[in-house]
């Protein structure tokens, strides 16, 4: 008996482009189509809440080789709207694998397709920018799908944090020998597990709070500092959160902003953010420290950036992206603020920037506790 032909699947972009491939996992989802240049770490990508609202195309041609392992997940579920690769591995080879990637995607209702020319797709996204798209294994009427895409909201203006934040506060104990040396509040805007793990390993007890938690409540906790996590969507609609960050700044609270948290800090200081053409998604983004000229290879996942010309007096860019010159970090004169656009916790990606967690905690060591 001849092998059954795979079911056809489509990726349709708002400009009318159609990529027909093979269905890997069933379903229909709309989202912003972006590409990720990481060579490994697809499970961490899938489970990063910052990808809420996005269909992710992997530039690495073979995805799924080592299967899925719950120990490396960045959250309790995948958040992407859809997943695309040149070829998915149906039968993984890895002693820690709990299941194959196609089965994992299908079980979680994440539509996926392969068998397309991902190089051509990525070239189009680089030329046109991130585009709205739909991935489907159930529909074939391209004109109708393009019409629906015209009404689908752009990522600019979308507030997605409340869809991914934790429902209630929780405590994460310190994991370093000798127990807790610091207490930190962590605003969960879609926080990756490795941010919490990295801080706990450095001796911090963490009070993880929902995104809408008022600044006054955080100050009542008597913590030594506050971490503003990564998260999805456009930072500018998050006006209530920006107000809370502004209150924490006014109270002199030490702050560490990561990715979306970095952008929210910029807004709280009076700056502006803007949407990047196709964003930074992957584990190979070069960043230079303007003072030391040291270059770090960083893990990144974001579609917005801080406008350096909008930063107020006393606030200056300290690191920039070597690919496009965008701000990767800024310093605030006279304030205990550490803010980076990239991911020092990586997962996936290089660990060049992991010392930033120790740097933030070292700055707290010299300060009296708040409260």
List how many beta strands DSSP finds: 19
Q: How many discrete domains? A: 2
CATH level-4 homologous superfamily of the largest domain = Class I glutamine amidotransferase (GATase) domain
Examine the secondary-structure arrangement and name the CATH architecture of the largest domain: 3-Layer(aba) Sandwich
What would CATH call the class of the largest domain?
Alpha Beta
Strand order of the largest sheet: 10-12-11-13-14-19-18-17-15-16
Morphology call: globular
Our estimate of the beta-strand percent is 25-35%
Number of helices: 10
Mean pLDDT: 95
Structural class assignment: alpha/beta
Q: First CA to last CA: what distance?
A: 74 Å
Instruction: Give the H and E element order.
Output: EEEHEEEEHEHEHHEEHEHEHEHEEEEEH
Q: Characterize the largest beta sheet: strand count, sense, and whether it forms a barrel.
A: 10 strands, mixed
Residue ranges: pLDDT <50 for 5 or more in a row?
A: none
Computed CA radius of gyration, to the nearest angstrom: 21 Å
CATH topology of the largest domain, by name, is: Rossmann fold
Helix content: 10-25%
């Amino acid at each position: 008996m001849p092998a059954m032909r795979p079911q056809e699947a489509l990726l349709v972009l708002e400009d009318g482009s159609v990529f027909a491939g093979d269905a890997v996992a069933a379903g229909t989802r709309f989202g912003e189509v972006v590409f990720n240049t990481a060579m490994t770490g697809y499970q961490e990508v899938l489970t990063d809440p910052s990808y809420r609202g996005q269909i992710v195309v992997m530039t690495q041609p073979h995805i799924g080789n080592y299967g899925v392992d719950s120990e490396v997940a960045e959250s309790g579920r995948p958040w992407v709207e859809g997943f695309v690769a040149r070829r998915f591995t149906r039968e993984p080879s890895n002693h820690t694998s709990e299941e194959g990637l196609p089965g994992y995607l299908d079980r979680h209702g994440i539509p996926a397709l392969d068998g397309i020319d991902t190089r051509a797709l990525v070239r189009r996204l680089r030329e046109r920018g991130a585009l709205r798209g739909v991935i489907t294994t159930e529909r074939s009427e391209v004109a109708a799908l393009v019409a629906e895409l015209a009404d689908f909201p752009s990522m600019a203006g979308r507030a997605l944090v409340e869809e991914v934040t934790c429902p209630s506060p929780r405590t994460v104990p310190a994991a370093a020998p000798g127990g807790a040396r610091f207490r930190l509040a962590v605003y969960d805007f879609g926080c990756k597990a490795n941010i919490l793990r990295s801080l706990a390993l450095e001796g911090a007890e963490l009070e993880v709070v929902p995104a809408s938690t008022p600044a006054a409540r955080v100050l009542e906790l008597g913590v030594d500092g506050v971490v503003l996590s990564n998260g999805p969507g456009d930072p500018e609609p998050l006006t209530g959160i920006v107000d809370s960050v502004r209150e924490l700044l006014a109270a002199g609270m030490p702050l560490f902003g990561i990715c979306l948290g970095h952008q929210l800090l910029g807004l709280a200081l009076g700056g502006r953010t803007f949407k990047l053409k196709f964003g930074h998604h992957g584990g190979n983004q070069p960043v230079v420290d303007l003072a030391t000229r040291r270059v770090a290879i960083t893990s990144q996942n974001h579609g917005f950036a801080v406008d350096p010309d909008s930063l107020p007096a006393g606030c200056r860019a300290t690191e920039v992206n070597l690919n496009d010159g965008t701000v990767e970090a800024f310093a605030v004169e006279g304030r205990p603020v550490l803010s980076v656009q990239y991911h020092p916790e990586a997962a996936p990606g290089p660990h060049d920037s992991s010392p930033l967690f120790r740097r933030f905690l070292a700055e707290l060591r010299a300060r009296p506790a708040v409260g």
